[in-house]
Amino acid sequence: MPRLRRFERSRFVGARDTMIVYDCDDPEQFALLEHRVALDDLLRRKLIQTYGPDTLAEARNRGFGLSRRR
Fold this sequence. Notes:
By secondary structure, the chain is of the alpha+beta class. It has helices at 27-40, 56-61; strands spanning 12-15, 20-23, 48-49, 65-66. The model has no long low-confidence stretch (mean pLDDT 92).
């Protein structure tokens, strides 16, 4: 599965500016995340969030919602 550079071990990655979590194992969600990272420069602006444990439940616990766009 594809992963973001520097976040290769994280399945769920969130964008702090929108509080949306993306599942990197879902090709459509990963494409959206890659687009956002490139367009909005999320890495440089330090707006990427990962979770420990790397689960959707933990992301939701921290206030993030799953991306619904398709």
